[in-house]
Amino acid sequence: MTKQNFIIPKGTHIGHVHLKVADLKRALDFYCGVLGFELQQMYGDQAAFISAGGYHHHIGLNTWESKGGSPPAPGTTGLYHTAILYPTRVDLANAFKRVLQSGRELDGAADHGVSDALYLRDPDENGVELYWDRAEKDWPREPDGKLKMMNARIDLKALLETATI
Fold it and tell me: For the whole model, what pTM was predicted?
């Protein structure tokens, strides 16, 4: 393990992700039309900034270096996935229902003990995780108190039954 000389301050968060896309309209159709993000600003016809709840942007989408491009080849380095945290399990279920209604398929799904997670790909083959965190008091722990995450099956039918849309 690498020695830590500095510990990042508690309360630090990842602010936003900026994705290179091949087709801006196609990306907006997915992130806004399927997942429900709101367009905050267009930057000409090359970039868009989208968010949940009116924030300046959670996701930036651009074609500056990627217009008409193809996804990275498997086995190369790069972004594994962007994770989108929903405030409630019902919100996750609603997102799941919209994904299915759009005709998209999941790459996978898991109960990680700390969260329920759904995995899929955006139109540019970028990985996307949709998830909901359980309350910290309900996270599984080892006898010594250390976190004990898992990769268990999630009942997708039961999740879908909680959707309200």
Answer: 0.90
Q: Which domains does the chain have, with CATH numbers?
A: 16-67 (3.10.180.10), 81-165 (3.10.180.10)
- Residues 113 and 139: their CA atoms lie apart, in Å, by 6
CA 67 to CA 45: how far, in whole Å? 11
Closest-CA residue to 60 (of 87, 36, 35, 24):
24
Q: Which of 48, 54, 59, 53 is nearest to 15 (CA)?
A: 59
- The answer to whether residues 113 and 148 touch, using CB atoms and an 8 Å cutoff, is yes
Convert the pLDDT of each residue in 92-148 to its tens digit. Answer: 999 999 999 999 999 999 999 999 999 999 999 999 999 999 999 999 999 999 999
**Structure tokens given for 30:** 């997915």
